[in-house]
Amino acid sequence: xxxxxxxxxxxxxxxxxxxxxxxxxxxxxxxxxxxxxxxxxxxxxxxxxxxxxxxxxxxxxxxxxxxxxxxxxxxxxxxxxxxxxxxxxxxxxxxxxxxxxxxxxxxxx
Amino acid sequence: xxxxxxxxxxxxxxxxxxxxxxxxxxxxxxxxxxxxxxxxxxxxxxxxxxxxxxxxxxxxxxxxxxxxxxxxxxxxxxxxxxxxxxxxxxxxxxxxxxxxxxxxxxxxxxxxxxxxxxxxxxxxxxxxxxxxxxxxxxxxxxxxxxxxxxxxxxxxxxxxxxxxxxxxxxxxxxxxxxxxxxxxxxxxxxxxxxxxxxxxxxxxxxxxxxxxxxxxxxxxxxxxxxxxxxxxxxxxxxxxxxxxxxxxxxxxxxxxxxxxxxxxxxxxxxxxxxxxxxxxxxxxxxxxxxxxxxxxxxxxxxxxxxxxxxxxxxxxxxxxxxxxxxxxxxxxxxxxxxxxxxxxxxxxxxxxxxxxxxxxxxxxxxxxxxxxxxxxxxxxxxxxxxxxxxxxxxxxxxxxxxxxxxxxxxxxxxxxxxxxxxxxxxxxxxxxxxxxxxxxxxxxxxxxxxxxxxxxxxxxxxxxxxxxxxxxxxxxxxxxxxxxxxxxxxxxxxxxxxxxxxxxxxxxxxxxxxxxxxxxxxxxxxxxxxxxxxxxxxxxxxxxxxxxxxxxxxxxxxxxxxxxxxxxxxxxxxxxxxxxxxxxxxxxxxxxxxxxxxxxxxxxxxxxxxxxxxxxxxxxxxxxxxxxxxxxxxxxxxxxxxxxxxxxxxxxxxxxxxxxxxxxxxxxxxxxxxxxxxxxxxxxxxxxxxxxxxxxxxxxxxxxxxxxxxxxxxxxxxxxxxxxxxxxxxxxxxxxxxxxxxxxxxxxxxxxxxxxxxxxxxxxxxxxxxxxxxxxxxxxxxxxxxxxxxxxxxxxxxxxxxxxxxxxxxxxxxxxxxxxxxxxxxxxxxxxxxxxxxxxxxxxxxxxxxxxxxxxxxxxxxxxxxxxxxxxxxxxxxxxxxxxxxxxxxxxxxxxxxxxxxxxxxxxxxxxxxxxxxxxxxxxxxxxxxxxxxxxxxxxxxxxxxxxxxxxxxxxxxxxxxxxxxxxxxxxxxxxxxxxxxxxxxxxxxxxxxxxxxxxxxx
Amino acid sequence: xxxxxxxxxxxxxxxxxxxxxxxxxxxxxxxxxxxxxxxxxxxxxxxxxxxxxxxxxxxxxxxxxxxxxxxxxxxxxxxxxxxxxxxxxxxxxxxxxxxxxxxxxxxxxxxxxxxxxxxxxxxxxxxxxxxxxxxxxxxxxxxxxxxxxxxxxxxxxxxxxxxxxxxxxxxxxxxxxxxxxxxxxxxxxxxxxxx
Lengths: 109, 1003, 195
Prior knowledge:
The complex is a heterotrimer.
Chain A: E1 3-5, E2 12-14, E3 19-23, H1 35-43, E4 51-57, E5 65-71, E6 77-82, H2 90-99
Antiparallel strand pairs in A: 1-2, 3-4, 4-5, 5-6
Chain B: E1 3-4, E2 13-22, E3 25-31, H1 35-41, E4 46-49, E5 56-58, E6 70-73, E7 80-84, E8 94-98, H2 112-115, H3 124-127, H4 135-147, E9 162-174, H5 178-189, E10 194-197, H6 207-210, E11 213-214, E12 217-218, H7 219-232, E13 236-239, E14 242-247, E15 252-258, E16 271-283, E17 287-289, E18 302-304, H8 305-315, E19 317-318, E20 322-327, H9 333-341, E21 345-351, H10 359-366, E22 371-373, E23 375-381, E24 388-393, E25 402-405, E26 408-412, E27 415-417, H11 420-424, E28 429-432, E29 437-440, E30 455-457, H12 467-484, E31 497-498, H13 517-520, E32 524-526, E33 531-532, H14 533-541, H15 547-554, H16 567-578, H17 582-585, H18 599-603, H19 620-624, E34 628-633, E35 636-642, H20 649-662, E36 665-668, E37 673-678, H21 682-689, E38 702-708, E39 714-724, E40 727-732, H22 737-750, E41 758-761, E42 766-772, H23 776-782, E43 798-803, E44 806-811, E45 820-826, H24 830-841, E46 847-848, H25 851-860, H26 901-904, E47 909-916, E48 927-933, E49 939-951, E50 956-964, E51 973-976, E52 984-989
Parallel strand pairs in B: 2-8, 9-10, 9-16, 10-13, 16-30, 18-26, 20-21, 20-26, 21-22, 36-46
Antiparallel strand pairs in B: 1-19, 2-3, 4-5, 6-7, 6-8, 11-12, 11-31, 14-15, 15-16, 17-27, 23-24, 24-25, 28-29, 32-33, 34-35, 36-42, 37-40, 37-41, 38-39, 39-40, 42-45, 43-44, 44-45, 47-50, 47-52, 48-49, 49-50, 51-52
Chain C: E1 17-19, E2 23-26, E3 30-36, H1 39-51, E4 61-64, E5 67-73, E6 76-82, H2 86-96, E7 103-106, E8 111-117, H3 120-128, E9 145-150, E10 153-161, E11 164-170, H4 174-184
GO molecular function, one term (chain A): sarcosine oxidase activity
Organism (chain A): Pseudooceanicola spongiae
InterPro entries (chain A): SoxD (IPR006279), SoxD_sf (IPR038561)
């Protein structure tokens, strides 16, 4: 059962205070989008064995969404960060690169 | 025979006698006995029958690893099957019964299976019971069900209570033997927050039995000193009778504390489940001795060598008058000394090693004990009790050299570190060739949220067996835990240790090495599931070569003991059969719990009223007192209907509908969601969420809106009220309140975070009461409500008023087609307002109505309901709700989804009304049939029923459904499925069955 | 809708209480107002004006008997006052919160309030049976405010004083919360977790 640190309220709590929200940084394809882009938006998700960026909500806590970088195989949590970002912060990426040299995730590396 | 010794027994109190019964026979023991030791003291070695062959089974071990002595404990509401006698502390009045035999333990008809055992090898059920197919239901299945399982399930509700406890520690130490105590002391002295737990009722583990000296005194003294030191530390919490059940992610560990099993009482929780979060976990879980695999090693009286001396030294019980010892290692010699010290006879020590043993062997000979090297057991004599052994050479096929009489056999195949908790969360093992054991690979420890190791093994669990090795290892483990948690170790406390050096064991996986097939078919690996050496060899022969396959094919290690005595022996036999090294074969997966834990402890206090959080409206008590029939809506309880004077539910619903449509009805609508959406961008935000244009809604007005998901599917509906320039109140369905608030927060926080708007869930702030029917306005006016004429408060408007002296917000909205008001009142005044309405309503012969009448009335008016007309694949256009979809908006959730060809297809089934030609009520879940069959010989369908009711207003059945062609099929007669009696005919009609012109609303 | 008129509002359980090895009691209703917006700006000033208390820091609560300001999230404060002060408070907020991005919503009726009183170690332990929160005296101190779950429902708790826990939950689950608190406080089930 994971331990997560919510960057919005600062609480480190067990997984039961949170609710997972799938992949982070999914780009919304709106009404003008082509079929392929819309299909990707709805259905295509990364499924890495390793570094993954995902959304969490602190449901029985401050109620805020945040993002997390987590290794899906070892469950190491590299860091959590604000949901109001379009890409993982550089500081976090540097930390991940140090631990997982050569990792890639979509177009992030 | 086994018996009570006149003296000795560290753990028993000979001054406190205890009476108990076993299979109805009264027996005596002492306080401090386990049920197993007390049974042995009463010469009850036979304790059960094995699962498959019903072979007589005796006590084998002294602790949690016991595979055979499973009994049913207690009676009635406290009966529990499959309890291990070795971990059951004796108490006065204990009632135990043995399992898996009929008619009795001593004479069991099931033993015929053993005679026919060559027809029941491993995996026999994959090859038998194939036919005839008809036999399955009436012959095979009943027989298998009757013979399956070990104990009998309890039939009464559990009379005990259970609870959970969340605990946090820097260092959690699991195991209270000398290793655990040492590691805990290291951590405690450094100032860390320590939690130390031990599964038995005593600190100290094996050390006091196995001997050794620390600082010149017996190790038991050293243990006492450690316990005293730890107990005095404020930063250390200690628990006995508390087992580490499992190690999970990020330092989460479950502890299973047995509070009253040893002294049953009511009013105290029986078990407490500790839900622990620790930064570091030290597993000082010891090691378990392995049996040796020789023919007849399952005959009652054959025991683990360490268990024999445990019973003698700890519990003052002699397992047998004349004990034969068979071993591949030095440690088992300790049992010979214990036997002799107790005044009993050692028949012989058979050492399978060609050169025999070390210092302990020398001492044995000095004591005059007969020791034979390079010798093994060919077979054991006796059926319900050992009567003797046949000796052979360990090399060779088992030709008998000599037979000697004995009534107990103490066997030792070496020791396996208890690596379960280390392995639960991903810790890896290495095969130690010299020690013939799997032990933790410190280089590949389980890692936590920070990627760093969080489990450390100590003592025998880490492969350290001598007392001095254990203490060194445990101190190091404690020290690692200390530095990993950021503390600094205290000063090193010097200790001198005296113990006896041992020479290495020799692996003996089959005894004798070249045993014949006949001998191998009686050499047991898994006592509980009746798996023998020949079964594993058969699995390999049949191609089940992976250890996971061999396990499942033979069921080795799949019993309630999870293979504690059988796994290593089994995989060694497999590796031998495959001609592969043991590490290549590997182990199967260790899974929590370490030993079985009660279901009650997992549930904790979540039962009966605390099973789930029922949600009650402010009027709940009134409903309860007035004939309510409840309907669960998620965790809410809503009235389904109210029955009076012996009415059926159907009659009640009819009465409620008629009363509301003819006079006035009152509805508790408190559960519907009320979300306050406030901010300069509130209108813009709601325009994105609803299909309708919400930003144009004027203050004081209401608008019915639809919400779709990004796939385009309709997911919720509700009336939105504009409160002021920047404030909207969104109603949602009952099931939607929390969900839609979460949906709104998700979009605001993760996508449109530039929008200036807040959402506050006010669902519980207000009770909401529907006052519905042609006399609704009059009823409200009688209660003093001002200015609610049609002009001042038109349909789809809201206003603040005072009703019965209470300030309320009136929404003039309708789900029934009648003149209808919903009153939002602060929850704390909800019951008072309801009661005022009831009181005043008497003059109108008002009714209270529930969800069923609500549903019937909306269906009569053709209003859709989320969850009936929608199922997650339905779009608004399917329901003729095109009018609710704004053509002006460039974007809203679901807009893009609905342009997909499948959703824009004109052939999609669309909403219609149906009326059966015979007025009957169509069944729930019915389908509309089409001609012909599909390629699977199934009848073609052209529609399905989404809602169906008896309409009191129309005096007939009405239904709504989705039909190919939708309303273009008006007037057609279709066939609708029925469970029996063939399909029923129904005419396609307008889904607005009643008051099509809406006159009842126009008042 | 903010006048104090009509019949006096009732709490969910009418002040039910239980004396186990600690005392569990439903507290009378309090005025509770959810403030959303910029805590460091107008919102904080308004909260201070209503209560005369300082604005709390992250995950803190400033308390003086029935008055409190609790930090709920980066953009949310919960103001608590005696229930009789509610109409004036809402009136004051209507004036003071001119920023359209600030909102005040009355949630006084949406909540139930409980107190757990008794020896400090036992009061902490009762919570520790139900919430995944480190309740050790060194870890959870007066002045801290923790939103979490109590068994299966969301709740928030704080320590107004040693030997007293106050917690809030939704009104609809008040009976469930009372039941689980009473179960946890049953004499004979003392765990001795905090000496």
